[in-house]
Each structure stands twice: as C-alpha cells, then as structure tokens.
Amino acid sequence: MEIKKIRCNFCGFLKKGLILKHYNLKVCLECFPAFFKKRVQETIEKFKMFSKKDSILIAISGGKDSMSILKTLKDMEYNIKALHIDVGIGEVSKKSKEVVQEFCEKEDISLKTIKLQEEIQLSLKELSKISKRPICAVCGMLRRYILNRESSGQTIVTGHTLNDEVAFILKNMIFWNDELLARIYPVLHEKEGLSRKVKPLCLITEEETRFFCETLSIKYIEEPCPYKSEVYELFKKVVYEINYDFPGSIIGFYKGYLKRTKRFYPESINNISLQSCKNCGYMTISELCSICRLKEKLLQYKHG
C-alpha cells in the first residue's frame, strides 16, 4: 500500500490516503485510524472475545502489531493492562523496553515488565544449547508460560495479525502438524489453570498495523528479532506476496479455514486431558510441564 491522492469513501473529500484493495476501499489518512478501530471492534464482537467488563492483559513487544492493538483498546476504553517480557537480546530488547515504557507512561497504561533471564538465570542461547531446541522455540515456550502465570484469570490479548495466522496455517499444512492446525482459532477458551487467549487483529494485515502506527505517530521497533525462525519468515514472505498479487486472497483463505476447521478436526482432538505439573501446577499433558523439564535439564547441565 502506498499513500496517494484519493477520494475517501468515508468523508468524501479528495485527500492523501490509501487504496485498500483487499477491502475495495479508499481511505484518507485522517479517517484510517477510525476505520482500523472499527475493524478491531467488529472482530471482537464477531468472535465474542471480551467485553468492557472483562479485565484484559495485553502482551506487548514494542512492535507495530502489539503497539497498535494496545492503542486501539486503550482508546476504546477497555479495561487493559500491559505485560512486556524483556527477552535479553542486546540492543533490540533495550530499545523495545524503552519504546514500551515511554508509550505506556504517555497513555497512562499500567505496565509490568519481566526479565526473562531473571526467571531462569541463563541466556536464550544457553537454554537453546541445553534443551537442543531452536532459540525461537525456547523463547516462545517461556513467554507463553510467563504470560499465562501473570494473567491470573484475565483475558490475554496478543498482536497476531492475519499475516501471522495464514503463515502459521500454511507452515503446519506443509508439515501436517494436525495438533497445531486443530487449535487455530481467534479465541482459545479458558481451561482449568489456563487463561483465555484472543487475537483481535486476526482479520487485519500487517500493512494496516504499520499505517495505523505511522498515522498516529506511534513509535515502534522495526528491527526484527535476530533469532526468528527462518522457516516461519519464509512463509510470512509467501503470504505477503500472495496478498500483493491477489488482494483479499489471504482473508478469504483464513475465513474459509475457520469455517472448515471443525470438519477437518473433530472437537475431540482439542479435548486433550490436562493435569497439573507436579512441581509448579501449570497445566500440562505430562507429569512435568515443559518449563520444569527444562529446569531439570539445567540442573543436570550445571552438575555435569
């Protein structure tokens, strides 16, 4: 999407704006933030994500997606708090923390920051080596654990966009990861010990979150994480190119997948029996959760 002179479909004036081909709309820069917020509100209502009465915890990294949903829900007067997990990746993490703190102070949003290394006393590189898993996978596992622990019954909001969702579906279709494909939905309902998780940006593209932040002069981190999964990034690139060449195709694909997912995967596949981890109480499919298993490996590593 590029900025050019258009006649806005909302205010009717000839102004600088965007041509949103996937919506077949022309929106001026002044009307775009309201259009964006309307799309988010429609998604919240469509999937019955949460209400103004609910307490909401937003996972915020400092990137354009999480910053845009934080600003949107704040402006729409939802009951929100923010959680930032400092993963300790040099300058990227330092800048992310600064951007998040500055924004939350300006917007008067309650923010809690947790340092990952204080939780487990080792760097992500060291944890990856010991667990024999990619850094991205270890980081994601730890962040999900902390986020659920800190939510304490609140609804967890993440900044996953339409691009993220479609890339995740395509990646797991290629490798036929049925367990993950069966769980793809804008709302993951709460279970005993696990908080409700929702994705209000699931029908909104990354280009839209970027324009939202830039239109409102919201600072965000542009530097990519140096440890991002190369495979996942490849699928993200494919999704972007498909949507560029065939506007509207990825939102049609995603909506089509959601309609068919129950036919592909009966509800029984999601009704996996969970039990409390015998060490920390986190809900898991085995005696020990993945974090406690990782801690056991750390003890073995330290004692040779």
- The total of beta strands comes to 11
What composes the largest sheet?
Answer: 6 strands, mixed
- Give me the strand/helix succession: EEEHEHEHEHHHEHHEEHHHEEH
Helix percent band = 40-55%
In spatial order, strands of the major sheet run: 6-5-4-7-9-8
**Secondary-structure content class:** alpha/beta
General shape:
globular
End-to-end Cα distance, whole Å, is: 55 Å
If helices are DSSP runs of H or I spanning 4 or more residues, what is the number of helices? 12
Instruction: Point out poorly predicted stretches.
Output: none
Task: Give a written overview of the molecule.
There is one protein chain. The chain has 304 residues and is an alpha/beta fold. The chain is built from twelve helices and eleven strands. The protein has helices at 32-46, 64-75, 90-107, 116-120, 124-131, 135-151, 162-174, 178-181, 206-215, 230-245, 249-264, 290-302; strands at residues 4-7, 14-20, 25-28, 55-59, 79-86, 111-115, 155-157, 187-188, 197-198, 275-276, 283-284. Strands 6-5-4-7-9-8 form a six-stranded mixed sheet, with helices on both faces. Strands 1-2-3 form a three-stranded antiparallel sheet, with no helix packed on it. Helix 5 crosses helix 6 (135-151), helix 7 (162-174) crosses helix 10 (230-245) and helix 7 crosses helix 11. The longest helix has 18 residues, at 90-107. It is globular and about 70 Å long. The model has no long low-confidence stretch (mean pLDDT 92).
